[in-house]
Amino acid sequence: MGSKSSLRTISLSSGRFVVRPQVAHREVEGQVVILAPGDSALFTLNDSAALIWRDLVRGCEAAALAKSLQRAYGIDPVSAAKDVEGLLRDLVHRQIVARRRR
Amino acid sequence: MSADTALTFCLTGFPGAHRALATLACTTGLTRHLSIASPDPGGVEIEFCSAHVRDVRPGLIILGGWSSAYEPLVDAAKKVGAGVAVYWTSSGGQSGLAREIGKLAAVLQHRKVDHFFAAGRDLAAAITGAVHLPVTLDLRRVSVGRPPARQRARVSLFFPWREAARKNALNSLLAAAMSRERIELVLNGLTEDDDYRELLHALRVPHRELGWMSEGDYRRALSRIDIGLQPSFAETFDYVAADHLARGRPVIGSAMVPVIAEMPASVRKHLVVRNPDSAAEIAERLECLLTDRKLRIRVGEDAAIALRRKNDRDIAAASEVLASLLRHSPLRIC
Asked: I need a labelling partner for B232 at 20 to 30 A (CA). Which of A95, B8, B96, B251 fits?
């Protein structure tokens, strides 16, 4: 509960995020497949989430992830930022990524 | 993760093996479980898992049940020098009824499978070289509760209709019909079968169909049950019975249900029917528990304590089996 409520109050639209070291991930046949710690089920990302993921793994900041999404799908900046924030929220909640400390 | 750890894999289509291996990771801390939804050997999941084996280089991989979809995992394990085990969670009788004989033969003849783990003690004893790896339960968040007194006791008959024959549904319904004035049967899928639905109406047994349940719905349903019915003709363990007993709910079962048959004699005498093909005997056991609520509560609570003790022993035994193999894994020796 604590982590959920703190997620609501912390903005995920800025800053840099890193994949946690316990997470196994790889691209298989063009699909990003992730195994989260403490989870037995694999999950795959859809095309747009995979695009964000690749940039995230390269070390891009949240703002750059949104720009990348905006360019690739021709959507407005607000929607792109919202989508990126939603994905990051989910990935943080599943303990797949963490905000990088400055 | 290293040679002293095991990776376990199971197709989600094998729910018993899947739950056993997922739980083993929690209870022993010696394994890491991955579930595989697609049985496609060339699919993304199998490919990811094979690559994961090559990356992690575990001492042992354990496969839940058997499917040819596992072949790439076996090859990946062999490439990194890991041992390969198959965990067979059906008993002999259950394997026969489920027509799993061909798969069993394939595993036993497979040249790359190093270990055959059987959840059933008797099956392990019957197969040369097989090792008994007990099923374990994660009871950390399970507590014993007392259901309120009700005019009609809620009696569960929890299994999907496809399992009805093995689970002895007909005799259970006949037994329930003998006490129909005082019970409500709670089902999870039996009425999906036309014949059983008709029979329930013909026997005029009050019932409630919950259908397929999520994990949360299942736990909530269990908390509202007074007595379970599982007089099966064949079982390896019977998770449903164990889930009831862990919460202090007595379950009437046959001697073929190990989790009930291994209870102390003082509990067993109230729960085990000698002849599961006798609806009258099932009804007699049910009647005793229906008429005496105090007995019902006491038997349930005693069963819950006994189950915890048995589970502690099973976790220790399973840990010992895994640790001994990991200590002797080829990678470790090299």
From this structure: B8
pLDDT confidence of residue A1: 36
Distant-in-sequence, close-in-space partners of A89: CB < 8 Å, separation ≥ 6: A7, A12
| pLDDT at res. B327 | 73
The helix-helix angle for A62-73 and A77-93 (nearest 10°) equals: 130
Q: What is the pLDDT of residue A12?
A: 64
Complex ipTM > 0.90: no
Q: What burial letters (b/e) apply to B267-300, b meaning 16+ CB within 10 Å?
A: bbebbbbeebeebebbbebbebbbeeeeebbbbb
Within 10 angstroms of residue B67's Cβ, the number of other Cβ atoms is 18
Q: Given B22, B25, B52, which is nearest A35 (Cβ)?
A: B52
Structure tokens at B271: 């729960």
Give dist(CA B259, CA A52) in Å, integer. Answer: 49
Confidence (pLDDT) at B5: 83
From B46's Cα to the closest Cα of chain A, the distance in A is: 10
Domain A2-99: top CATH class: mainly alpha
Backbone angles phi, psi at B77, to 5 degrees: -65, -45
Q: Catalogue all structural domains in chain B, each as residue range(s) with its CATH number.
A: 6-133 (3.40.50), 153-310 (3.40.50.2000)
Which 8-state DSSP code applies to residue B42? T
- What is residue B117's predicted lDDT score, i.e. its pLDDT? 98
The secondary structure of B132-151 as a DSSP string is E-------TT-----PPP-S
Give the residue extent of every domain in chain A. Answer: 2-99
Ranges of residues in chain B with a pLDDT under 50 are 329-334
Residues in chain A whose beta carbon is closer than 8 A to a beta carbon of chain B? 24, 26, 28-29, 31, 33, 35, 40-42, 44
pLDDT tens profile A23-43? 999 999 889 999 988 888 998
Local confidence band at A20 (pLDDT 50, 70, 90 cut-offs): very high
Chain A contact set for B45 (CB, 8 A): 33, 42
